[in-house]
Amino acid sequence: MAAPKKGRSASAQSRPGRSLALILIAIAALTGGMFATGHPTPRLGIDLAGGTSITLTAQNEPGQPNAINKTNMDTAVDIMNRRVNGLGVSEAEVQTQGSDNIIVNIPKGTNSKQAREQVGTTAKLYFRPVLATDVSGGKASATPSPSASSSGSAKTGDKATSSSSASATPSASATTQGRAVTDALKAGSSPSASSTPSASASSSASPSSSASPSASASVDPAAAKLQAEYTAIDCTDKAVRAKAGTGTKPTDPIVACGQDKNSSGQWQKYILGPAEVAGTDIKKAGAVFDTQSAAGWKVTMDFTSGGSKKFAAITGKLAQNQPPQNQFAIVLDGQVVSDPSVAQSLSGSAEISGSFTQTEAQDLANMLKYGALPLTFHESSVTTVTAALGGEQLHAGLIAGAIGLALVVLYLVIYYRGLSVIAIASLGVSAILTYVLMALLGPAIGFALNLPAVCGAIVAIGITADSFIVFFERIRDEIREGRSLRPAVERAWPRARRTILVSDFVSFLAAAVLFIVTVGKVQGFAFTLGLTTVLDVVVVFFFTKPLMTLLARRKFFAEGHSWSGLDPKRLGAKPPLRRTRRASAPVDTKEA
Fold it and tell me: Strand 51-59 vs strand 349-356: parallel, antiparallel, or unpaired?
C-alpha cells in the first residue's frame, strides 16, 4: 500500500509547473480582455471621479392629494436604486431629501441621459383597447395593422392604422368614432362586436346624415369631449405627446399619441378605452433579440396567473371586432408603445417590438421588471459634482496603503528572509488579478471603485499575507520535526490548506452578510473584500504552493541556507528521523 501512495505524491510534486502556467495564462487572457474592452482602468465612483446630481420632486396624482408620503417616497427610492444600481456596486446613490425630493447621484462614466430616463420614468404600463386611431395631422392610413400570433405571444410591430376608409367624409368618420366611444363608455370596458361600426357603414355615410340631430344626439357628452380632444391633439409636437393622457385614471378612456412614428413615418393618435391589464400583472420582463424576423430587439413579458386571465379575456373580446377595435394598445406613461391587432384569445405572455435598440429594450425591460414608481416626478435641478474632496481622500488612502504594504514586506524580509520572495511574488499576482477584474467588472456589471472599495482592497493585503504565513509556519514545524524540505512542504500543505480555507470562508461570509444587509458605499467595501478573499484562495492554490514546491528543489532552500528562512539550526530542528536496526548476535564462523 505504501508504494502507490509514494508514487502519487511524487507525481503531484513533479507537476507544479502546470498550475503556474495555468494562472499565468489566465492573467494574460484577462489582461488582454481588459484592453480589448477599451477600459484599461477601473471605473471610479462619484466620490473619486465626480458626476451628476439630479433632484427629482414628487407630484400629487389627480384624486390622490395625500399620495406624497414616507411610504411612497421610500418605495420610489428603492425602485430607482434597483433600476440604476441593480447589483449594488455601480455607486449610483439614491436618497430622499425633505418630504418630496429625491437626490440621485450618478458617477462620471455612466450614461447620465440614460440614467436620468431610468430614474425619472414612472413606467406605468397598461393594456388598453383601441376605440379609434388616425394619423396626426392627416387622413387615415390604409396600412394593415400587425396581428397577434397564435402561439399565445402578442407580437407587435410598427404603429397600426386607422379604421375608416379613404372615401368616408370627415364628419361621418367622427360620428362613427363618437358612437363607438359612446358604446364603450356605456359598456364600461372594451367595445363588443355589436358596437363596432362596419366598414360599409363608414364608407356610405353622407355629410347630411352625419350632421343630423339624431346622429349627434346619440353621442354621449363625455364621448363628445373625448372626440374633441382627439380631433384637436397634434401628436407631431413632442410636448403634446408627453402630456397626452396625463391626469387620468386607469378606468378612464384617454386620448394618446404613439411613442414613435409608424411605418409610414407619421405620428399616430388614438382614443383608448379603460385599462384592462396593468403593469402590476407582469411577473417578469426581459430584452431579447429576435433572430427569426427583422423586428430586432424586443421586450418579452410573462404575466401572473391573474394577469394571464385578464389578458385572455380582453384579447378574446377584441378578436370579435373589426379593425381598429380588434387592436389593443400597450401604453407606457401615457404614450402608445405598440398597438397589435388580435385574431384570437391569447394568454401567458406578450411581446413589445418595434424600432428598439439594445439599450432601449433593456431599459424598458428593466423598468417593467422592477415595477412602476408610486409617484410622478419631475426634474427640479441637474448639477455637476466635482471630485476634489474625494481625490484628496484617495491620495491619503493610497499613502496609507503604501505604508502598510511596505511594513508587511519589511516584516516578511526580516522574519522569513528567502521565503519573502514567494510572499512578495504572490502579493504581486494578487494585486494584478484584483486590478484587472475591477477594470473588467466596470463595463460588465457597472462596478465603480469608491473610497470604501479602496479600503477593502487595502484590508485584503493583510488577509492574503496571513495565508502565506500559515503555510510557511506549517513548513517550519515539519522541519523542526527533523524532516527535509521537500517532504516538509508536502506534509505541511494539507494542514495549511484547511486553515487557509476556513479563514477565507469566514472572511467571505462576513463580506457577503455585510453586502446583503447594507446599502450604498458600504456595499462597495463588502464587494471588494469578498472579491479579494476569493482571489486569495486562487493565488495560494495555483501560485504560492506550486512556486514553493519548485523552490524546494533548489539547493539554496533545500540545504537550509541561513538566508533561506528555513535553516534547521535557527529553527531548532531535531535530529533527522531515522529507523534504528536491532543488533544481531555475533555469528561463529566455525559453527557456520
Answer: unpaired
| CA-to-CA separations, 564 to 413, 547, 551, 571, in angstroms, rounded | 10, 15, 10, 12
> Residue holding cell 494539507?
494
- Using one digit for the tens of pLDDT, what is the confidence trace for 486-513? 999 999 999 999 999 999 999 999 999 9
Q: Nearest CA to 278 among 246, 315, 251?
A: 251
SS (H, E, C) 209-228: HHCCHHHHHCCCHHHHHHHH
Look up residue 378 and give its three cell numbers.
419631475
Residue 105 cell numbers, joined: 447621484
Candidate from 142-156, 206-220, 257-271, 388-402 with smallest mean pLDDT: 142-156
Residue 291 grid coordinates: 433572430
β-pair type (125-135, 101-107): unpaired
| DSSP string over 3-70 | HHHHHHHHHHHT-HHHHHHHHHHHHHHHHHHHHHTT--SPPB-HHHH-EEEEEEEEEPBTTBTT--SH
172-185 mean pLDDT = 52
| Cell of residue 256, nine digits | 394618446
Bridge partners of 54, per DSSP, are: 104, 382
Beta carbons of 466 and 536 less than 8 angstroms apart:
no
> Is 268 within 8 Å of 159 (Cβ atoms)?
yes
Question: How far is residue 444's CA from residue 112's CA, in Å, rounded to a whole number?
Answer: 17
- In this model, does residue 538 exceed pLDDT 90? yes
CA-based nearest residue to 512, from 501, 534, 527, 500: 527
Which 8-state DSSP code applies to residue 132?
E
**pTM of this structure:** 0.59
Structural contact between residues 391 and 369, judged by C-beta atoms closer than 8 angstroms: no
CA 10 vs CA 297, 476, 554: distances in Å = 57, 21, 16
Spacing of C-alpha 152 from chain mean position: 28
Residue recorded with cell 522569513: 416
Q: What is the four-CA torsion angle of 168, 169, 174, 177, rounded to 10 degrees?
A: -10
